[in-house]
Amino acid sequence: MALYEHVFLARQDLAQAQVDALAETATKIVEDMDGKVTKVETWGLRSLAYKIAKNRKAHYVMLNIDAPAGVVAELERQTQINEDVIRYMTVKVDALETGPSVMMRKQDRPERGDRGPRGDRGDRGDRGPRREREDAPAGE
Q1: Is 62 within 8 Å of 101 (Cβ atoms)?
Q2: With 15 labelled, which of 47, 76, 122, 127 sits at a CA distance of 20 to 30 A?
Q3: Does pLDDT of 97 surpass 90?
Q4: More confident of the two residues 129 and 31
Q5: How far apart, in whole angstroms, are the C-alpha atoms of residue 88 and residue 47?
């Protein structure tokens, strides 16, 4: 069987219990067709980069799936029908992550504390005086 990561975005006005019910529905679809959902991660209510169907935020949920391709096709068909899901994406992967995903680990690290006051850029030192540009038109 193939390994997949399935991420879907649910509308912002849903309660967390409704989002969990959507994840359980997706899990049931996969398990009814002889697949396995190895992990379900709820990433929470997050801001979107742009508005999608009048939503500025969405509930993110990721499922790790071990199933044949036909199961994923049925899961995507059911997801597409559901009005509470505004976007989804399924990606075939070589191996599933066993620990927390990158999105969950992102919350554990400090914001800018370990990179210093200038962030990832190092100190540029003294660069010397600025020289005149030769191609600049004079008098403008």
Answers
A1: yes
A2: 76
A3: no
A4: 31
A5: 16
